[in-house]
Write a structure and sequence with these properties.
By secondary structure, this protein is α/β, with parallel strands linked by helices. It is 43% helix and 15% strand. The chain contains 15 helices and eleven strands. The chain starts with 11 loop residues before the first helix and ends in a 7-residue tail after the last helix.
């Protein structure tokens, strides 16, 4: 069942050209949302998963479906509902009977066996069903009836959730949120973008995106990104940012000290390193700078900062806390 795609080495120029081609093709269908599209692409290249949060109708599902076309990947959509069961996601064993009357079990793979999995409205399913994705997201494997199955590579989960309608939903537990490389906020379009959306979607012609890359190229881009060097003082800056999200290490007058119950895990630092490396390559640089870290800090940390009661009562947004951190944490000097 495993189909690991062989990768070839590529140059920084090849990386940038492919990434730009992907962004251009997605832009044929998706109006605006440049930051969202770029950050989703960064997740895919990094080999991570993305959680997209926004009100209905902003094109979250359309973006993910368009990416599957542009990247020529096997696409699967799972509509999360309260009655969805884990077996509906990972698959189940089915008893069959051979011609000679012998009975045996055959594993019927679920929709998680794809390259690009859309977990639509993931917070509408019960925690038991949500947890069915944990192993797949972390280890790229599925275990059923004591048998372990490897998922095809590349493998990405792009999940969506609606921040407004919370009745009948099940907020993702911290352990599962932590497995998303980025949490990406999908904002409402501007007037100009809304006019363009109406023009594209209510006319006779339908916008279509062409293939710009395949699974092998995405894996090669991810391999190149991991080779990007990061200086020790930049790594230290990332570590200090993550440590500063914990109230026991923060000043009492800071937003963290006042409103945070628990800060980011080490996965937050890993997310910032990988995201910063991809961001550097997108900017045609083969080294990580402080601005690369700052460019991905919000997406990498906003779902990993847990507010205390005061923070929730005051309506403090995690982005406010991260913005305060970026002002407070000094840039280290070269060692």
């Amino acid at each position: 069942m495993t189909d690991v795609i062989a990768t070839d080495s590529i140059s920084v120029d090849d990386f940038h050209q492919t990434a730009q081609a992907i962004l251009d093709e997605v832009g044929k269908v998706i109006v605006g949302q440049d930051t969202v599209v770029r950050q989703v692409l960064m997740c895919i290249i990094s080999g991570g998963h993305a959680l997209l949060e926004g009100v209905p109708g902003l094109g979250k599902t359309m973006l993910i479906r368009t990416l599957s076309d542009v990247l020529d990947l096997k696409f699967s959509r799972i509509q999360f509902t309260p009655d969805l069961m884990p077996a509906d996601i990972v698959g189940t064993n089915i008893m069959e009977e051979s011609e000679d009357g012998h009975r045996y079990f055959r594993f019927e793979a679920g929709p998680v066996f794809a390259n690009l999995v859309l977990a639509d409205e993931i917070n509408r399913a019960t925690p038991k069903t949500q947890s069915a994705l944990l192993e797949a997201m972390q280890e790229k494997t599925v275990t059923s009836a004591n048998e372990r199955y490897n998922l095809d590579l590349p493998f990405f989960v792009l999940a969506t959730q609606n921040p407004l309608e919370m009745e009948g939903t099940y907020p993702l537990p911290e352990a599962q949120l932590d497995r998303f490389l980025f949490k990406i906020d999908v904002l409402f379009p501007s007037t100009e973008e809304l006019v363009e959306i109406m023009s594209r979607t209510t006319g006779a012609s339908v916008a279509h995106a062409d293939t710009a890359a395949d699974g092998a190229r995405i894996l090669a881009m991810g391999d190149l990104a991991r080779q990007v060097p990061i200086a020790s003082h930049v790594s230290r800056y990332i570590a200090e940012l993550v440590i500063a999200t914990h109230p026991e290490h923060a000043a009492s007058d800071s937003l963290v000290g006042q409103f945070v119950r628990y800060g980011a895990s080490p996965r937050g630092s890993q997310a910032m390193v990988l995201g910063a490396k991809v961001n550097a390559l997108l900017e045609r640089r083969y080294n990580v700078a402080f601005e690369d870290v700052q460019a991905v800090a919000f997406a990498a940390l906003r779902h990993r900062i847990l507010l205390n009661f005061e923070g929730m009562a005051e309506g403090i947004a995690p982005d406010e806390i991260i913005d305060d951190l970026l002002r407070r944490v000094p840039l280290p000097t070269k060692e």
